[in-house]
Amino acid sequence: MLFATPGNLSLPAAVNEFMEEHEKRQRDFERYNAILELTTDPAARAAIEDLIRQTCDRLSKIDKAKHHRPPAQNPGPSPASKGRGRGAVGQATES
Known about the structure:
Strand content: under 5%
Order of helices and strands: HH
Shape: elongated
Number of strands: 0
Number of helices: 2
Structural class: mainly alpha
Largest sheet: none
Helix content: 40-55%
């Protein structure tokens, strides 16, 4: 059995990468917003607003990927495929 200790984290590498990228993008977002508040040049503001949009889009994709769970391996037959349950309405069954 593995225990999570500072030298032995039991998180998969992909989860750790998502967390690191999410933290980096969150810091970028906060920095861009701080710079935007101090900027008066219209062209610079437009460029920073574009960076903020791109960062928000990437954060959203990271969150979706982090919460996505692949379907179970070999889930077995569903109740509908056996002729029972909600999916069987209107289907003929063998006797």
